[in-house]
Amino acid sequence: MNKKFVIAAACLWCVFTGANAAPVTLMLGNFTAGDKTDWEEQVFKGKTEYTLTPGKKGERALMVRSDASASGLHKKMTIDLTKTPYLNWAWKIDATLKGLDETTKKGDDYPARLYVVMSGGLKFWKAEAVNYVWSSTERAPNATWPNAYTENVVMVAVDSGDSKVGTWVTHKRNLRDDLKRYFGKDVESIDAIALMVDTDNSGQKATSYYGNIFMSSE
């Protein structure tokens, strides 16, 4: 077979299959650069403190401090999961919360949580959503349970207990796969991302840190 023909065919295969396509990254929260543009706070109870502060490896991070308060920092943005299905983030907590039953309304507090909202606009606590949390209770990896306030939100313990307290933990989740697993449908886009540190039900205090939050194609 002609050598030039083989090379040309290989190049065409790369074009049509996207074999040479560069990975796509969509930055949502560039906190290590000191940027929280388009992230807006929604207060439910009390005042949660959001501060850009030095974080891991000398980079900045978003420090979130809650004192018997609950508010969410959200970014409303339509994200195409067919192009960037992976959600990436890093977080660190100073301590877990004590004596909670997180399956109840009185215990629905978390030192760190990240919402992925499919619908419902800015009322992300009522919307159809997945809520990735750092559970204060020691749980099996990826343990799930219904949110105490609404059946539309699935809680997923990506971290739990005290073993990683004070340590930066990095996560990467295939959102399209997760949403299909937890809601039984193929979701091609999401409407918003929201983060919280809340202690309003228990009256406790919590301080946590968020590194960059971004979507990626792989």
Describe this structure in words.
- By secondary structure, the chain is mainly beta.
- The chain has one domain (23-216): Sandwich (Jelly Rolls), CATH 2.60.120.260.
- Helix content is 11%, strand content 47%.
- The chain has two helices and 13 strands; from the N terminus they run αβββββββββββαββ.
- It has helices at 3-17, 175-183, and strands spanning 25-29, 40-45, 49-54, 60-67, 70-80, 86-93, 110-119, 128-135, 143-146, 153-160, 169-174, 189-198, 205-216.
- The strands form two sheets. Strands 2-5-12-7-8-10-9 form a seven-stranded mixed beta sheet, covered by helices on one side. Strands 1, 3, 4, 6, 11 and 13 form a six-stranded antiparallel beta sheet that branches.
- The longest helix is centred in the N-terminal third of the chain and has 15 residues, at 3-17.
- It is globular, with a radius of gyration of 20 Å.
- The two termini are 36 Å apart.
- Residues 3-18 have low confidence and may be disordered.
Number of helices in the DSSP assignment:
2
Determine the strand fraction and express it as a percent band.
over 45%
Mean pLDDT: 88
CATH topology: Jelly Rolls
Q: Report the major sheet.
A: 7 strands, mixed
How many structural domains are formed by the residues?
1
CATH class: Mainly Beta
What structural class results from the helix and strand content?
mainly beta
Cα gyration radius (Å): 20 Å
Query: Main sheet: which strands, in order across?
Result: 2-5-12-7-8-10-9
Count the E strands: 13
The percentage helix is: 10-25%
- Give the N-to-C terminal Cα separation: 36 Å
Which word captures the global form? Answer: globular
Order of SSEs: HEEEEEEEEEEEHEE
Q: What is the CATH architecture term?
A: Sandwich
Fourth-level CATH superfamily: Galactose-binding domain-like
Weakly predicted, low-confidence segments: 3-18
